[in-house]
Amino acid sequence: MKKILKAALAASSLVIAFSSCGTKETVPASSSSAKSVGPAGTSGGKVLNICVWNEEFQERFNKFYAKRLPSDVTVKWILTPNQGSAYQDKLDEYLLAQSEAAADAKIDLFLVEADYALKYVNTDYTLDVKKEIGLTDDDLSQQYKYTKDTMTDDRGNLKGVSWQACPAGFIYRRSFARKVLGTDDPEEVQRQLDSWDKFDIVAAKMKANGYYMLSGFDDAFRVFTDNVTSPWVVNGKINIDPQVRRWIQQTKEYTDKDYNAKANLWSAESGQGAGKNGKVFGYFGPGWFIDFCLAGWAADDATKPYVAGNGSCGDWAFCEGPQGFSWGGTWICAARGTDNLDLVKDIMYVMTCDKETAKRISEQTGDFTNNEAAMSEMAHSDYRNEFLGGQNHLALLLQNVRKIDKSNISPYDQGMTEKLMGSMTDYFHGAVSEDQAWNNFFIAIKEMYPNLKR
After folding, report:
1. CA–CA separation, 398 and 243 (whole Å)
2. Cβ atoms 445, 415 nearer than 8 A
3. What pLDDT, in 10s, does the model give residues 349-394?
């Protein structure tokens, strides 16, 4: 199996985007074991090792699952931040040593993102969710198809599950909209933003009133790249989809016209644009971005509820924007060799299949969860997101989730994304020509993937 994973490493991205909103400097202490009956039939190890790159899943686990843990089981969170290739490198080390590791040192669960999921999906280091872990088609029936397709290997085996789905849209400042557009109503604002031509017109209006349409270079990147009609690599050759070129053209124009604040996504400057005194009109993102990133940037005090009176919280709303898209997602994988198989099955079921848990996650975090029945109920309920001024944004996301198509993902996505963003930043700043930026991109990609042709 070591040869399998090493081959996967050679063919896939080893670079992960650094997400400042979701990565903290201090590795959290292992959670204390909760005293409860726990899942029926649990047996095996006394330490549950979970590899993560930030605290998002840990927060959800502790809030929505930890009380089910058997009293004699301790959870060890192995947190490796996303800088460079640190998380994947560390995870690879653990998986390659899994067969020789002591029982309590074996990895039981680890998380992956869509951009590099196939690297792990197409190896024997991930357990089959149905055949080996034991979840049934009925258990998984309410999960959105694309979330399962993303984690299905080339033999048709499901190798991971997620608690979230990630349809996305445009999150905008209500007060800026009222001043510049004459309304902050999501339906009315959407009518003024439902195409890129209209989006450009509003960007000019925002600039005239002292605001930035976007925080910087990378804000719209995922909107365009999620709508590509071809993958990054075709028959061993680097392929540049027209949507990628559209992002570059628009971003250069917005930079030159001061329609954006010239920040890189995840930078402190990007987040500051959302604060009470910030000047950024909007950000593109899904449910997790609102809860796990934007709300913290907007708040004066991130330890207090994200409601009106705390920074710019409550002064936001959500609409689809010029082009429907999705962004990201986190999947839970079970590592072959785990000595906590019963517990792993129960965690996967409760966190990703159980309707009531899905509803609770959405109610308390605003995340759009991976359960059709739960999200349909929430969309037609009296749920209010106070960060969004009382709006039920889940209803809009429910309309968009069925449109998500991940047929063009590849093992190269993360590396291509990182190198393109890095190469084009110099072009947006005017430090190099577009041709030189492309040349720098191709040089960087050939260093990472020497097997690819230009």
Report:
1. 25
2. yes
3. 999 999 999 999 999 999 999 999 999 999 999 999 999 999 999 9
